[in-house]
Amino acid sequence: MRLVIHLLIGFVSVLVFLGLVALASISGSSKADLFSADSYFFRQLIWAAAGAVVLVTASRVDYHEWRSWAVPLLVLVTFLLILCFVPPIGLNIKGSRRWLNLGPMRFQPSELAKPAVVLFLAWWIKRNERKVVTLRDGVLIPMTTLGVVLLLIFVEPDFGTTALLTVLALCLLLLGGTRMSYVIALAVLLGCGFAVAVSLDPERLRRILAFRDPERYAADEAYQLLQALRAFRMGGLWGVGLGRSIQKMYYLPEAHTDFILPIIGEELGLAASLGILAMYVGIFVLGLFIAWRAPDLFGSLLAYGCTMTVAGQAAMNIAVVTGSIPTKGIGLPFVSYGGSSLIVLGLMMGMVINVARHAGGMVVDTHTQPIKDRLQRV
Prior knowledge:
The chain has 378 residues and is mainly α. The chain folds into two domains: 1-60 and 220-378, no CATH class; 67-200. It has 14 helices and three strands.
């Protein structure tokens, strides 16, 4: 298991490094530009160091101790999400209330909602293991509780994170033993509700239309997508060279966040893009292996949830910048600029590593049904 942990840390470190390289290219070419207070590179470097501290600390905390934090953390996240709508603490940026103004820094509570949802569901399923097959304990209570958090994120609005957390919650409930018929029925119901909400939101509806016919909306909703695809084409196999991106020079908005992968693809080529994809696949496979070997159900679900969060977010971002799904604001894990994201990702990877440190053998908790049996039933 030590090799698995080292590989996991290695993949994460390489992704953070590539993100810093891309942000250095975007921030400027001179040393003064890179280390100025307004430099994306410099601020990300500080957050990366903080994230590393969080990862190491979380990896040394026995994951069983996180059970007592499941409900308090969810309550805290709910409170912080409510504060997003209370000015001047909550900031309204480009029509969205996703950030809290904490003086010299900003914080995005929806990022903290990711481990909060995973931790709550892992705790709930373990606590009610024999009752999650029922409609009440397997769907109604946990999803109603999480519904408050999901609704607050949805109305910020942040449709991407809402969709990610909803799919994550349904997957964990299914893995935890909830009847597949309940999960499918709930998924259909939520999917229909989501579709209606999108159809009633003019901006989101235009994004759907732009996804179907990008050339028609090339000047507005499809502008970012077309510029991203152009960046990939210009990069070819090996790229135009580090720091030589043309698209980062005002052609591609949000190049440091949601659309950072096209800049990497332009400067370092398809080879680098495929390498990044391979590292996410590696994190996914290693995370699933750790979850498979976890000593108990709580550890399995914790590792599965954290792993699926990272892999799911990466898949969504890559799908967006390649035109596979409509545009939505969701960053590339470990690579995109964002302090809240790096801290939370460090926390989740630290949890996974701690589960791995306890996974010396196969599932051994005789008081719970092994999650492998649950997977086979699914």
